[in-house]
Design a protein that fits this description.
Largest sheet: 4 strands, antiparallel
Radius of gyration: 13 Å
Structural class: mainly beta
Order of helices and strands: EEEEEEE
Shape: globular
Number of strands: 7
Helix content: under 10%
């Protein structure tokens, strides 16, 4: 999922890994910065094919990340 996309191309990505990990990156130009470590979470069922709902609640400089309607973690906008 891409969010807070700017005309300069800067944006954020929230995604899943097949083994059940999550990733959140801030993209600036061609450089990606990890907002949170790519950790395993017991909310995501590993392996394809699975349907998983992702959501982000952004309030000022704080992000809250949801997986299947469960808040998984939060991170500051750096």
């Amino acid at each position: 999922m891409t969010f807070r996309y700017e005309s300069t191309g800067s944006h954020y990505r929230f995604g899943l890994r097949c083994e059940g990990g999550v990733r959140v990156h801030r993209i600036s130009g061609s450089t990606a910065f990890a907002l949170v470590p790519s950790d395993q979470t017991n909310i995501v069922v590993p392996g394809p094919p699975n349907e998983t709902m992702l959501a982000v609640l952004a309030s000022n400089s704080q992000f809250r990340f949801f997986i299947n309607d469960v808040e998984a973690f939060s991170a500051p906008d750096t």
